[in-house]
Amino acid sequence: MSRRTFRGGALAGIALLLFALTSELYHITDVVGVGVSTTYILVAAGTVLAATVVARLLRPRAAFVLTLLILLGGFAAYFFSLPAGQRAVFSLDRVLADVVALLTGLSVLRLAQADVWALAATPAPVFFTWYLALRRRYVAAATVGGATLGLLVLTGDAGPLTTLAGVVGVAGAVALGTLEARGGVSAQLDTFAIVVAAMIIASASLSVVPGGAAQPLLPDTNTPTSEQNLVQSNDQVNIEGSIRLSPKVRFSVESAEPRYWRTGVYDRYTGSGWVRSESDTRAYDGRLESGPGDRRELTQRVTARTQLESLPAAADPVELRGSPANDALVTEQGTLRVGGSLRENESYTVVSELPQYTPEQLRRSGDDYPNDVSGRYLQLPDSTSDRLRERTANVTEGEENAYDKAVAIEEHLESTKEYSLTVEEPSGDVADTFLFEMEAGYCTYYASTMAVMLRSEGIPARMVTGYTPGQRVSQNEWVVRGLNAHAWVEVYFPEVGWVQFDPTPSSPRQSAEDVRLESARQSNESGVDTGNSSTGEWTPTPTDTPAETDANTTTTSTSADIDGPQAQQSGANASVPGGAVSGLGENQTFSPTTNTSGGTGEGDSGDGLPSRESIGVGLAALVGLAAGARRTGVSTRAYRSVWVRVQGRRQTPERDTERAFERLEYLLSRQYRPRRPGETPRRYLRSLSRLGLDERALSVGEAYERARYGSGVSRDEADSAIETVDALVRRSTPVLGRFRS
Amino acid sequence: MTDAETTTHGASERTALPVEETADLVSRISDNVERVIVGHTDAIEHILITLFARGHLLLEDVPGVGKTMLARSIARSIDCSFKRVQFTPDLLPSDVTGVNVFDQKTREFEFQPGPVFGNVVLGDEINRAPPKTQSALLEAMEESQVTVDGTTHPLPNPFTVIATQNDVELSRTYELPIAEIDRFMKKLRLGYPNHADETEMLGRVANRHPIETLEAVATTEDVLRARETVSDVEVSEPIRSYVSKLATYTRDNAELGVSPRGSIALVRAAQARAVLDAREYVVPDDVQTELPSVWAHRIRPATGSETGETVAQAALEAVAVE
After folding, report:
1. Which residues on chain B are in Cβ contact (under 8 Å) with A706?
2. Using CA atoms, how far apart are residues A406 and A412, in angstroms rounded to an integer?
3. Can you give the residue range of the structural domain that contains B296?
4. What structural domains does chain A harbor?
5. Are residues B44 and B113 in the same domain?
6. Quick check: ipTM above 0.85?
7. Which of B285, B286, B290, B291 should be substituted to probe chain A, the one whose Cβ sees the most A Cβ atoms within 10 Å?
8. Are A212 and A105 a contacting pair, CB within 8 Å?
9. Chain center to CA of A235
10. Predicted confidence (pLDDT) per residue in A310-322, tens digit
């Protein structure tokens, strides 16, 4: 192992760390910026180049000052890129608050001008890290780079793979850098390989932080799922692989009519999920503005049945009454957020203003979108594939207006994709993968894909999460369970506001939920029913004319579009919204849900080959085991124990004699001691003969000398040497030897 | 070391003695010498190896330990001529090689051979003579011939020089440079005899010195044939590679390592050592036994705490036997 090898390894470690760091930041520019990602690559590459040059020229102190200047310059650039309105409220308190928010899990993606932030934040750490690495100060380099990556870990932007890559990079740089400085040997390299393998396996199979972005790479079957994560975090939705349903009752709603109970709105698509951009969340202080157009009021009373981290309400809520109103927050997207959490049985009243519209109205609404809507809700990652745009164009071909396009997309998804809770988590862009490579998925896949397709057509759309209406237990009361958690899409229409679309096929979804609920009841899981919900569906008598579930009677005629399920249900089933018994209860949760899809018994398409992550972890384990075996000499010993017993094919008498002696030597090295490098065979055997070495071994030694140094041995002599060694080996094998000789 | 000697005298038509006989011959000579010299069995063996491997020997020792007696005993045992040159500061080269003398009767110059013309030549206290005189002897060793006034006179065969160096009285001496020392196959120290040996020795010489009654046990012809035997000993590829690696080790771990001439000397000595063991091929043990006496004086160590001996020993421990 030369020092050069170690240096190469240490630099590779730092490079891996920088790659993890910049790939995360690149992802941000890709998601948020328009055409910024190319600039980002240039900036990052230029920084590395500059550091390479500067490492030859500047001393560390000067380089440090340079780094500070770059850092300040970056932040100045970010500051001046902010809109004037935000700059006006700039203050130290605000900066501190933002920093704290970032460090406690505010995703960078949710910052205003996140792309500029990423661009501004990149050069300084990348520059200094690479500079230090080239100056052979690997620990300092790892500290700088690791701290920056650590920041992204705290903000929740760095996923487990990236974090792991960074940690492995840091470990590699520090370990190999030390070996370079002190001069290492290959045995130490083996140890290092074992440690890294252990790191990878441990981090892949354990999760210290449940939820958030830190999920284990390997399936963990024991982590319970909870749709509460979806509702409580409210800031982002990660698209998961297989999920399962939670049958526990969350809350009940008293309302004149069933609606989708909305809890979260997401505007920024990241390719692997959604985040809610964040710049101005204010405290609730009275009646909210609802959207444009005609509105109809609906008053709901919601009672929490477990601790609740959200404020479910029909869109768009305008007024909140009850104790949660004191600390509720209003987001930029016009939704309500709970300040702390709701206790069990705590209740509140919310007044919503439902949009009033007819399909005709929507068809005529045009595309004169307000600036804040088109600026925020048309965002797509730069990396969004062309084939997705093309497919969308094909699907919506011939449709003139946004409404018909949305219906076409919705119908396309419903008709081409199967509903299944058991899917393999896509590794690339979710929408693209779902559209082209997957045959089945559940609501978040449908909703994400539809929203992305709409945006690609220039129609403002957003991802919405919440609950389906739930089980109707009386004339005006609905019980909502965890398995009712759902995701759908809202599309903006000028003069009307946000209109909801649900591209998820409803009947397979409901049957999945029914099965789950039934099995939960049979196995007596607690919290499945409350009060009268176990007695089954409340069915209105024919004379009861339930409130029209849709905003407007006219919409019921369009059976498969607006307000998806409700429209469908009420349309197809006239006055009996029976299908809404148990709405979709997938928990689009962030906890490490897995293939054990509870009692759904639904499609099992996600199984088959192990995922790439599993294969990667398996490879790491193999490397670690191999290094461990080499380190402890197990592999050599195992090989040798076979080797010593087998003479092998006969060759020349000389070669056979030499081989026989090699076997003898190995045997003696196990019985007595190994031959020292400078020790001749003759001296070795003589010194052992004083320790009781079998006399026959000496004759093998003589034959070996003749074969190797002299004029050679005859066939007979070679055979006799082989026989002698065979006999000695047999005698040294306790059981087998006695048995055979 | 004398490559030239081989060519001068040719790999003649002389038939090699079988190894067993050679081994027997060596032990006969050795036993014979030991009748005079008490102890020093190893030294006698080394000298005989030098003799049969066509080399020359440097003895470094205090006066009076029996250097001359040893050389005379060997010469007498193999029935060959013995010459002795006492090197002094005023010794001239011609005092060693010989001079052309004008013969009044024949009116011609006649070559009067110097003391170097003997089968066994003892150069006593070689470091006392000026370098010019030293080099006259060293050239004779190298070439096995002497050139005086343009005429080349071959030296007798066999021809072996045993030079001694006094290392106690170093004033007014001319220390041999390493390049010259390199020409000696081996360098030995006899050292003082132990108590038992000295007692025994005193008993032998008290009345009549045994050298006077010592009889030859071999002829020069025997020696020349034995030399052929040594030349025929097989040196296999692993041995050659082993010697080369040992030499490389000394070059890497000393200020001045062993020259290729040193490697050749080691192989020759190992061949002779194999013959002593009645073996027709060299084994690593031969190399290891010969290495210290053949190489130690050729190595100039890098640090003051080391000596040629320690470097040679380190090489033996560090280099893996092939």
Report:
1. 281
2. 10
3. 233-318
4. 3-184 (no CATH), 228-251+280-295+356-582 (3.10.620.30), 637-740 (no CATH)
5. yes
6. no
7. B285
8. yes
9. 16
10. 788 888 888 888 8
